[in-house]
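Write out this protein's structure.
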Amino acid sequence: MKWTSIALFVATTLVFAACEPKDGESKQTKSPQNTSSRKKPEWKRKVQPKQAARNASNISKEAPPTEPNRDGSIQVMADPRLFALYAGFNACGYDEENLRFSKPFPASLMSLPRLQARRYLKKRQVAVHPFCRFLAAHQQPWYVYSHYAMALSAPPHFTVDWTAFQPSDQKYLKPMEGLGKQLARLYRDATLADLWNKQFHEYEKDIAYYRKHAEKWIEPVQQKLADRPREGKIVIIPNLLESHSRADVKKLDKVSYILTPPRQPGRSQQCTIVHEYLHLITRPIVGACIQAIRDRQALYKKVAHLPEIRQNYHTLFLWADEMVVHALTLFFAGPPSGIPEEKWLDSLVVRGYFLVPDLYRGAKATLQTPTRLADALPKIFESVKPDLALQRYEKSANKRMKIGVRKESK
């Protein structure tokens, strides 16, 4: 079943760059191509009952607290609610990549846990069908599903806690009522607890990885920007059944969650963490981004009604936020090692981020000393040259069209 009902919402963060590993960073040790050795893969080994119980106990104990840490440190945890949701997505044919490419995404490029989940649930289609029917009847963007799932209780009950949502969120999440019951049924009938226990060691690897590196990655941001996320508590959750290119931020009950995609061998997740952390800072003050654009009347008149903004971002608000975060991520995390800066900026323009080169140069000139981002944004936007930005937009649109034609012809 081809899952086409979960719409691509480009305004949420696509992981725009996968950096090369820095000194001392670990690499992912498994890939889909490395499962043919004589030694039985760890995920196929029988999980002893005591170990399974210990895994379940660990998850329940790591439920994120509602109060922020005093030291503002970052927590990392696995989440069986998201695991169950994305296991169902994959069982029903969900391919985020197919929303951007005309042909099915190659299985060889999917993460190992994702492939394992698909194989596991392919043998349990009778248990999967009710969940797929629910997806077909509730055609909501993927981020609505994950937002709702984050407020459910732990397996196996998946009961919803509406008090975890902001009043403004409750209205758009109301159509999702019933998802908890469907996940509970899928979890029971498809024996997802067994799959969770088999894959738990993969989550442990990512938990250890982010605990080692995440705070070090965001330290430069904290040194240059006086701003801090409003939610004092930040929790990183590896989402190993997702696309390699999809990351997201959720806010629930005074806690901010950064959902990270599967790690790829030989690539760092620094850009992912910095990018999502910056969203926690920029979204509350993105009105300053809009004002900075409106102050530049020539720029505002030319970009405010571009069809690409309306189609992909829906509002100028979201478009401005994404452009600023891409530029700041490049400023704080740098381009992937081995790629010249100008070449990397050109690649961002081709992907539609045509203001990033100017905003990036503005950030380099402005953020020399610690400052509030809301105060710095007007100066950063002064670096934007409207005519040149629109020329870059037109060239990038032509390149994207040619790339799309070549992919269609293959």
